[in-house]
Specification:
The structure is a homodimer of 358-residue chains.
Chain A (H helix, E strand, L loop, with lengths): L3 E8 L3 H13 L5 E5 L4 H7 L5 H9 L2 E6 L15 H10 L4 E7 L12 H4 L3 E7 L11 E4 L9 E10 H17 L3 E6 L5 H14 L6 E6 H10 L6 E4 L1 H14 L7 E5 L5 E5 L16 H13 L4 H16 L2 E2 L9 E2 L2 H11 L1
Parallel strand pairs in A: 1-2, 1-3, 3-12, 5-10, 8-9, 8-10, 13-14
Antiparallel strand pairs in A: 4-5, 4-11, 6-7, 11-12
The structure holds 3-isopropylmalic acid (2 copies).
Amino acid sequence: RKDVKIAMLPGDGIGPEILNEAARVLNALDEKFEMEWADVGGAGYAAHGHPLPEGTLKLAKEADAILFGAVGDFKYDTLERSLRPEQAILGLRKNLKLFANLRPAILYPELAGASTLKPEVVSGLDLLIVRELTGDIYFGQPRGHRSAPDGAFEGAREGFDTMRYAEPEIRRIAHIAFQTAKKRGKRLTSVDKANVLETSQLWREIMIDVSREYPDVKLDHMYVDNAAMQLVRAPKELDVIVTGNMFGDILSDAAAMLTGSIGMLPSASLDEDNKGLYEPSHGSAPDIAGKGIANPLAQILSAAMMLRYSLNMGEQADRIEKAVKKVLADGLRTGDIYEEGTKRVGTKEMGDAVVAAL
Amino acid sequence: RKDVKIAMLPGDGIGPEILNEAARVLNALDEKFEMEWADVGGAGYAAHGHPLPEGTLKLAKEADAILFGAVGDFKYDTLERSLRPEQAILGLRKNLKLFANLRPAILYPELAGASTLKPEVVSGLDLLIVRELTGDIYFGQPRGHRSAPDGAFEGAREGFDTMRYAEPEIRRIAHIAFQTAKKRGKRLTSVDKANVLETSQLWREIMIDVSREYPDVKLDHMYVDNAAMQLVRAPKELDVIVTGNMFGDILSDAAAMLTGSIGMLPSASLDEDNKGLYEPSHGSAPDIAGKGIANPLAQILSAAMMLRYSLNMGEQADRIEKAVKKVLADGLRTGDIYEEGTKRVGTKEMGDAVVAAL
Ligand SMILES: CC(C)[C@H](C(=O)O)[C@@H](O)C(=O)O
Ligand SMILES: CC(C)[C@H](C(=O)O)[C@@H](O)C(=O)O
């Protein structure tokens, strides 16, 4: 059979360093992968004048899966928005129709001390946020700046955006969420702001409708402000959360930070056929780029997620995840998760250790 | 001089019980207040068929200040949205032009144990969120349900809302925030999502523009997802946050929950002339209503905020706040903040203790 083709998009900051380690881990497996590398984000702009160069988008479309590092660097902060590194990730999501974002927030027992929350509140945390990724106010038209057409400030300059969700859009993310919940704790929490927003009212209605097809999953609803509180108060009471693009952006980052070890958290962004883009939940950390100290584990675990969700190689994914657990159990730590009594290592040593543990 | 008139709006759930205690505290001061009580929320609907009855709105407009309990109860959950208790609070904000919401998140040293965060992360926390309250996607038109006019799901049923901010609207909340920051740590963090939203781009531009009038206040910007993370990671690094209605809803609740003692937190919603509505940051807690166990301190501290911001009685406000600190120091606790070694009291006993400590 033909080799599996992976688009390797390192991006900016620590992206290249950590993606390198993930590549080494993939190469250490029994399967053969065809990896093709391309510039994205600030690196795309620097080399080709655009954060998502045409060649990169073409590669991403052709490939069986995309392994993405991170984008963003101080030096691109002054560019106009359409040229800034983040546009690459928004463009990939939209063009590849990656509507389902899975963001696990898992606290590894060895790293419980890294959390700012009390151990009893977070130890054993294993939460999954299912975020809709191609709709909502992120892409809704119309949007822009104009003279206010009506209201108390008619005639004044205003900025505006449109939050929108169509029924089939809500329905398909609902199915992903219910199917995921079914395989886990059989509980699903849908987060919205139905007491204020029309979009949320439709969201809630469709969630309830789809729930009829999953009688073994218990659905409940939470307003987004309350969800933000419950994440802080008792995160272990939550299991799978499904929410829109905007609320998911905020809640998934809050949830990741509860663990104190965001350097460990991978994420997947999937299309209808389970083709996907895989990336760490953390950013490009330009302040520590090039120093060889970044934690490559979220990137390595993103590769494992890729094998499981898009490439049908669950066993190989298991091997990687077990290897990561082993290096943690062996006491190896990069700086971001270092604690007294453990061994501090760099990016490459951490990658070496995972390869050795495979 | 004519008596100060206060609109007392108890609302639902524990609202009546806690507002009673605040009334007793106000009556124990040297000033004389004319307090007029009216139904609001579910109670408004039950008595007059609307959550914000005409008479209540009229009273709120006439009064010098509004002391508000809380609204919402399970029994109103099935009402259509326009009749639900929350509409009262949205209606009061809009009708009275209460655009500036001040939400302190303060951790009283005696209550550090109540937080789910580690003591070193939150002890001494004293954060203020300035939330714009009458604009944004909460009130933006157009909104509703329709057949999608364009896009990938053209023709499908969709829900939509409009996020909008006009320049003068941003400008006036910016001034409130800068003035507040100037009196505190001289640092202001503006939270937006300018990497995605047009509304946020204008927000950021105006914040920067207004900052020129406050050269002694250091302004910085944070994306809302990052702000949610920083609240969990290192809340004490933040001082005053200013943000829009939607992001403020989420972040202020998250910030309140960091303290673990939301039963202690008051809030103010002010108009251009510092007339305001004052309410606890917590909700109506219908599950414990009528049991005499609710914590009245957030409501009592809301009365203190009212004296300070709207009624120009800073000394009286100080007296109340000192009295509250004294009862805490004396070890009195309602159930929500109870810890071993302290004395558990009910709503009325707590009110008694504050009156005695005045
Ligand atoms: C970079 C930004 C546009 C993006 C988002 O808001 O979706 C990021 O925060 C994320 O969550 O992946
Ligand atoms: C009740 C609801 C409409 C309200 C809001 O979202 O503003 C509440 O959550 C608040 O923060 O005061």
